[in-house]
Amino acid sequence: MEENKEINKKEAKPNMKQIKFILKKSEELEKKHSLASFLCVLYVSEQLNDYVKNNYNDTEAKNLLLNCVEKAEQIRPTFDSLDYSKLADLCKQLFLAADKNDRTEEITNKTIHMFFTAQIFYEILNHFQTLNDDEKKKYLYAKYKTIYIKKCFDNNIKPEPGSPKPEREKDQSEAESYEEMSINQENKKEDIQKDQSNEEQMWIKNDIWGEEENYLLFPKNEDSNLLFNNTDNNKIG
Question: Region (Disordered) spans which residues (predicted)?
Answer without folding.
Answer: 158-198
